[in-house]
Design a protein that fits this description.
Elements lengths: L1 E3 L8 E7 L2 E11 L2 E15 L6 E16 L12 E4 L3 E3 H14 L9
Parallel strand pairs: 5-6
Antiparallel strand pairs: 1-7, 2-3, 3-4, 4-5
The structure holds zinc ion (ZN).
The site of zinc ion (ZN) has 8 residues, from loops.
Length: 116
Amino acid sequence: MNVTLRKITKIPLDFKLKFDEINFKGFLEYHSGKLILLNAYMSGFIEKQCDVCAEEFKLPVDEEIKFFLSDGIYEDADNLELEVVESLDGNVDMEEVLASEIELIKCDYHSCENCK
Ligand SMILES: [Zn+2]
């Protein structure tokens, strides 16, 4: 799902994606200036290697994801309460957003049930 940021208005644009065992659903909504709010919920399971015993296990995921997307470079990010992700071509690929959120979780330290 590819979204053109300048087409997003105050009327929330719903989206719903699935990747393996992860569901990603939420909406995009115009905030102000170049900013679009992404407000989503990610739930399901991610296949991950345990950081202790290296066994593959299913990590349960249940997370709220909230950040701003900027249509172009955003210079005033320090004054915002949310993180800003800049889009340089004015588009956002929701599959890519989801893939990078999954990567972020995979990079965190997690151990399987046996190692807890
Ligand atoms: Zn383990």
